[in-house]
Amino acid sequence: MKNLGLLFIVLIFLAACQSNSAKYRITGTIAGLDSGIVYLVKAEAGQAVTLDTVKLVNGTFKMEGDAGVTELHYLRLNERDYFAQFFLENAKIKVESYKDSLRATKVTGSPTTDVFNSYLDELNVMNEKMSEYQQQFASAAASGNQQEMDRIRIDVEAASDNMTVFAKNFVRENSNSVVAPFITLTQLVSQLEYNDLKTLVDGFSADLSESVYLKQLNEILSVQSKTAIGVEAPDFTMNDPDGNPVSLTSLRGKYLLVDFWASWCGPCRQENPNIVDAYKKYKDKGFDILGVSLDRDKDAWLKGIADDQLTWHHVSDLKYWQNEVAQLYGVNSIPHSVLLDKDGVIIAKNLRGPALEEKLKELMP
To answer: How much is the pTM?
Structure first.
């Protein structure tokens, strides 16, 4: 009986230890502020969801609980002042902030957040350089120095490419951290083609299988697999401005650019002259275009077509980002384009600037 009693005590002790270890504890201070309400918040489906609230007493607060799957969380002071972001995990997390400089908040004790912050530190340096280029470009534009503008534009493109390469390398080097799928989801999805994205995702640790970010990436890959280069483009039917249905397969027999755009999209409107030039040069050689608009106002859509002289096929369901074709094709940013061969097979994506004309010249010399 004594041995059984001893075993019972040991089991209780171990259970208590396990219970304590499976908890997060956030202790924080906001210097210069005695009272208020601190909210623990995370984003779900684009909405801020409050998970916990505590009172700020004499400038201090404390929260604790079970983090579950590690995700990015935020702390908010009262109703609107967000002052900390960190990956919530079962650890002792310390938050130090100041009433007059909430942006200077320091978060320690979360290993995952440390990894993320090392990424942000390097990214901030790159963003500062990008800001310098933007200021230089604005100055060159103000003085009408086209040569300088062209030079700076090349520097900007190179800097943007470097940021993408850095993000990809960081993801590979930290493939066992939830930071990797988070960066991939928020920074790289719109920049990578299916094969590159799949290679990154396939390299993630099996320990991340329950990550919400990895689950979202796998859903995106499932959609993108249907529109990868070398795959027959999914068929669809959508109405033109006159209400007549237009199907993708009805346009087979020519090289076809499926161009996702909107009248409210500045980069789309800037790209349109390049597409117009390519269309004029190759429409009589077997090239056609189908514009899929993410507009929600028909008058604005029609005005955009007329103003930019987009004299090709156009369709839209006027559902904005819920456009059914855009969702079918996994479009999460515009401009976005897909080039099909005469049999409807995808042969290229997102050919911008002179790249589209160069590709068409290759296909239709």
So the answer is: 0.78
